[in-house]
Amino acid sequence: MTRRVVVTGIGLVTSIGSTIDSFWTALLAGRSGIRKVTSFDTKDYSVHIGAEVPDFSFEGVTTSVDLSTLGRASQFAVVAACRALADAGLDARALDPARVGVSMGTTSGEPREVESFTDTFLAGDLGAIGSELATRYPCSSIPGSMAAALGFAGPNTMIPTACAAGNYAAANAMECLRAGAADVMLAGGSDSFSRITYTGFARLGAIAPERCQPFDLNRKGMVPGEGAAVLVLEPADHAERRGARVYAELVGYGLTCDAHHMTASHPEGEGAARAMRLALEDAGLRPEDVNYISAHGTGTPTNDRFETLAVKKVFGEAAYRVPVSSVKSMLGHTMGAASAIETAICALAVDRGRIPPTINYETPDAACDLDYVPNQARELQVDVAMNNAYAFGGNNASLILRRYR
Which position among 139, 163, 212, 368 bears the catalytic label? Predict the structure, then answer.
């Protein structure tokens, strides 16, 4: 019998709030974390907005690792992990370390370490270059730092499948639990704001000049962001034995690759549609069972059009009845953290009976003709939520969460 996997803890670091209640309140209010970039000077760019985490601090977080020695994405991840464990009512010191694992996703790992190295090199100060690049930069340092900080010695994985990485990480954690390889898994994603990422998207002409408007006719692009989310996942029987509060059950996933183009999605949305179908099959559900879809919804003309097409391919007429919203309109695109944050949102939607809006939606697009929950949060009993994520390289990942019974 396959072990059932449930979400019992959530930890967040975002541009609109980093406690569950502050984040959820801001999200439902349609509050945007997108503002002028402050971490570096954008005067030489044609765009100047981003979704940075304001006033981030790890003060008061006690671990066996000095967090000041870690890169920013690793700091985000450790702090989110500590918050998730506390939310789940788990004490890291009381757990069997060999039975607790970490599964994380990222797009860029620790790009700020490369930037620091480059700045020092260009300044001609080679003597100032220490070991930081080797110890902080590899993306495996993110889950490794989490394990070291908390003393966990179970499965430890980093999945760098770009903007779908958070969902991939959750799927991997789900399989570890189903297989009995761990009793508790920390799963999520983390990415920090960087010149490297910002410059890449700016050169592609993909960054919106003023705001992010997913699915709107006049959308002009995505907005880079940063943040982290970590979820505590455990087998349902394990959670029940300790009397844990359960947000939702993680019941299915689908992973596919377009095998089409490095940056462009498949024009017919084939890979995205397959991922949704596989997730539904894994969950033993039908399209009409889904009450809410958390869209990838980047705000680029191409992504929103093909995602709408893919949803209609899978859901048929039911596509017009299920609400679909994009929180990237508020959070920006947090890269490898995006779908992890959105999985947390789906769990909260199931638990609390509200779904977040797509803000800045003003003018309908004939090619994007679904219910995008425009501008206002909505009360809705969510028994089944689907979270979609798509990434460069053609990586597609869909997760399904269900009310736990």
Answer: 163
Report residue 332: phi and psi, to 5°: 70, -175
Q: What is the per-residue pLDDT across 128-164, written as a single tens digit (0 to 9) for each?
A: 777 777 788 888 999 999 999 999 999 999 999 999 9
User: 235 and 383: one domain?
Assistant: no
Q: Token pair of 351, please?
A: 């638990």
Structure tokens at 237: 């029987």
Q: Indicate whether 219 and 337 sit together in one domain.
A: no
Catalytic option among 82, 238, 266, 333 = 333
Domain count within the chain: 2
Does 238 qualify as catalytic in the annotation? no
Place of tokens 């397959």: 274
* Percent of the chain as helix, strand, coil, to the nearest 5: 40, 20, 40
Same-domain pairing of 164 and 25: yes
Predicted pLDDT of residue 261: 64
Q: What residue has token string 């183009």?
A: 261
Regarding pTM above 0.90, the answer is yes
Please indicate whether residue 82 is annotated as part of the active site: no
What pLDDT does residue 186 have?
Answer: 98
Q: Is the pLDDT of residue 268 over 80?
A: no
DSSP symbol at 375: S
Phi, psi of 95 (to 5 degrees): -90, 155
Candidate list 82, 238, 266, 296, residue with the active-site label: 296
Concerning whether 296 is annotated as a catalytic residue, the answer is yes
* Residue where a domain terminates, one of 241, 261, 285: 241
Percent of the chain at pLDDT > 70 equals: 98
Place of tokens 């991922």: 275
